[in-house]
Predict the structure of Anti-sigma regulatory factor (Ser/Thr protein kinase).
Amino acid sequence: MTGGALAVTAPGHVTRARQLASRAARDAGLPDPDVERVVLATTELATNLVKYATDGLLAVMPTEGRLDVVATDRGPGIEHVSRSMRDGFSTTGTLGVGLGGIRRMADEFDIFSRYGEGTTVLARWHGAVEEAPWGSGLRIGAVLRAAPGETTCGDDWVAAHADGVVTVVLSDGLGHGPAAAEASRSVTAHVRARPEASPSELLAAMDADMGPRRGATVAIAQFHTARSTVSFCGVGNSTVRLVRGDGTHEALVSTPGIVGRRQRSGRRSSPLVRPWDGRGLLVMHTDGVSERWTPADRTDVLAHDPATVAGWLLGTYGRHRDDSGVVVVSGSGTT
């Protein structure tokens, strides 16, 4: 599906953001009235980024059954978020114009802001079916951004489900551009085809099928609703953190190597398995996002919609020199 992210720091970027949102909304199959609302809301968000924000970024992320528009920045933040939602509210130096209108236009709306640090806004529209295609009470949000100068992102993700199992994969194709994107598409195709296969089986199939492609680093999380567990396998340098409902957290470590090179030694024969109680959060991101953040310091933002969390992480910790991707999964009890 059409989508992507772009820097919004100058008036000309507003037009690009509006065009991106319009294409994505139509490709997602939204009806014409919703497309108009998507375009209006995106224009307002992008205009606010230009007027008030620092390092503004706008992401348009279609998935099956919905469209997310996420605006994020690195400052200056909103001092009084509740006031900013009032019609006509505007204070120089804050991102506040039109947020109340955006909330009314969207099917779902979320906002996180730290005064002096930055703001992330999520506006979401549903297609004909409001339930996420992966079901099972999970909520999943993601944001991808191509490397500077590229129009295609080499990072990709997908969530697919079958027989009470939801499998989520994040892939980082080596390098960037179309060749990296092709490698990641090969990874996600395996999950779409066999979401019920174990993470170890999927990695082995991806490794054998990469062929002449560049290869990729891959992180796979598989949620078993009946068992209340999440299983994880990864190869490469993706960052994966499991935040439990009690606030404790754990880094889930991948095996060194590259999927597609078939040269990995010491490959884990079975995935890591951890409890998943529906109040937890799983965060996965590629090396285009710095790992220098800790869940303990960011409990306020982690309580928000997964797409808001993903957008905030990319906007705050994105390196801005490589493809970058963030996927966040929460249980129904998280938000």
Q: What stands out?
A: Residues 90-97 have pLDDT under 50 and may be disordered. The first strand starts at residue 4 and ends at 7. The two ends are 27 Å apart (CA to CA).
